[in-house]
Design goal:
The chain is α/β, with parallel strands linked by helices. Helix content is 28%, strand content 22%. The chain has a domain of 142 residues. Bound molecules: zinc ion (2 copies).
């Protein structure tokens, strides 16, 4: 109604106000937008502003709904009724056409009384019934309505559904044809009632470039990787894959042009013997990785580089290098294995220690061996399955290295990031 998406050359989209309601102030629209720009990430303020008048509603709706990223673990608890209201609003056509990013991390201990750990985190209305099916239905209606969606990440932690489940059926009915990223991890379905291969056979998946699909480790959901071999259109543009135990991952690496790989198990970065076959797949498939994230990647490279360096020679972004003792000699020993990787731009360490600086001689050695290196992430001790606890980043300008504290960054974000 008020916001209109315009498609331009190169598939870029812009959003402009095409029929704003009358401006109640004497200031031009551009000035009003400039005034509120610094506050566009202040959700509560925007909600209040949107209630003032239709003009402000028009201004704030785009900022509120264009990119929705909710992590129930990190944000203050969101009552279930608020989540249901949000889901309902996403089906309103005026809102639907605004939303391009939807990232939801649903923590069941904040959503379902059957899984609740801390009573004070439960919504305040005293409702103690499980509403996980209702939440799934409401989210499902939103997902099937969002036809402009470009990035979808849904981490489901609804309560276990002991029945043959119809949950998440909407993921096979996405309406967007702009989808570039599809990330879904379910931790609730034990027996799936529907054929989850429908997720990848729908048209919405064809243009996806970054793909991650994980079901709960307790269950095998029917998904025949043969479908990927038979139909080369499916995920034909994929470059980024979350490689887990599911058989479709192996086939995707073999048959698609994957250059960015994250190896995970049950939602966490992993180095496990069951992934040992991956190197042979990379080698025989002729893959040349640019981004590679795995738990204890140094151990992996130690063995793999001696077998065949070609899948890794082009690596630009690499993590995480495990350092048991945060001392210069130990770190220097850990980075020796990286010597053949001359194109490295970004490197991440996990130090099993308290937060500590990166010794100067380590930076000097890294700079000499890896002339392209611009960024080094450090995280320490705490290992969180959902979010690698990146706390410090060192950045190089010319020959000078400086560091700063940063907010936690998920490894998937680092691998997805362009130019990092
Ligand atoms: Zn529940
Ligand atoms: Zn689920």
């Amino acid at each position: 109604m008020f916001w209109k998406r315009k498609k331009q050359a190169g598939n870029e989209h812009t959003v402009t106000i095409v029929s704003p309601p009358s401006n109640p102030t004497v200031l031009p629209d551009e000035i009003i937008l400039e005034i509120f720009q610094p506050l566009r990430s202040e959700g509560r303020f925007l909600i209040k502003l949107s209630q003032v008048c239709r003009y402000f509603l028009c201004i704030t709706e785009f900022w509120l709904y264009n990119s929705i990223q909710i992590d129930l673990e990190r944000h203050p608890p969101i009552p279930r009724r608020a989540l249901l209201r949000l889901s309902a609003s996403l089906t309103v056509p005026r809102i639907t056409r605004i939303v391009t990013v939807l990232h939801l991390y649903l923590a069941n201990w904040l959503l379902c009384p059957q899984r609740i750990i801390a009573n004070n985190l439960m919504e305040q209305d005293g409702d103690t019934t499980c509403r996980c099916d209702e939440i799934d239905d409401a989210l499902g209606s939103a997902l099937t309505a969002l036809d402009q969606l470009e990035s979808l990440r849904l981490y489901c932690n609804l309560c276990y559904d002991p029945r043959t489940s119809n949950r998440h059926r909407s993921l096979a009915r996405l309406s967007s044809r702009q989808l570039k990223e599809f990330v879904f991890r379910c931790n609730c379905v034990i027996l799936c009632k529907w054929n989850s291969s429908e997720i990848v056979t729908q048209d919405a998946i064809n243009e996806v470039e970054a793909f991650s699909l994980e079901w709960t480790v307790r269950v095998k959901v029917p998904f025949h990787p043969r479908i990927l071999q038979q139909n080369s259109k499916i995920l034909k543009n994929i470059t980024t894959l979350n490689y887990n135990r599911a058989p479709h991952c192996k086939v995707l690496v073999e048959t698609r042009s994957i250059t960015r790989l994250v190896v995970s198990f049950a939602g966490a970065l992993a180095y496990r013997p069951e992934f040992d076959g991956l190197h042979d797949i990379l080698s025989t498939s002729g893959r040349h990785l640019t981004h590679f994230y795995m738990g204890d990647v140094g151990n992996w490279l130690q063995r793999s580089l001696s077998l065949d360096i070609s899948p890794y020679r082009t690596l630009e972004v690499l993590g995480v290098l495990l350092v048991p003792v945060w001392q210069a000699d130990v770190i220097l020993h850990a980075v020796e294995v990286l010597s053949p990787l001359k194109l490295l731009r970004t490197l991440e360490f996990l130090g099993q220690t308290e937060r500590s600086p990166l010794p100067g001689d380590v930076l000097q050695t890294l700079t000499e061996r890896h002339p392209q290196l611009q960024k080094v992430y450090l995280q320490f001790s705490v290992w969180r399955p959902q979010s690698a606890a990146v706390e410090v980043v060192w950045e190089r300008e010319e020959s000078d290295w400086t560091f700063r504290d940063i907010e936690t960054i998920h490894w998937w974000d680092i691998v997805r990031k362009v130019g990092d």
